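Hey, I was hoping to borrow your eyes for a little while. I'm sending you its amino acid sequence along with the C-alpha cells. Take your time with it, there's no hurry, and the full record follows here.
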Amino acid sequence: MEEKQIGTVTDYFKKIEVAAITLTGNLKKGDKIHIKGATTDFEQNVESIQIKKQAVEKAKARDEIGIKVNDRVRKNDKVFLA
C-alpha cells in the first residue's frame, strides 16, 4: 500500500528527542507514522502531540507540531502515515 505523506520535519531537539513537524495532512494520537529521509528510516506510534507546548489529541494540515521520536530525525525528512 502506498504511504501518504502527511508532513515534513522542520527541526529536531536532541536533548528532549522531539521532532518539529509541519503537517500537510491530519495526524492523531495513536497513529503509526513512518519517518524517512536520506539516512532516516523508521516507524513508530504517535504517543503524544503538542502544539505550542500544549498537548492535543489530533492535529491538522498546516499545524506546526512537536512529537517525541524514538530515533534521531533530520530537517526535511518526510513523515508518512504508515
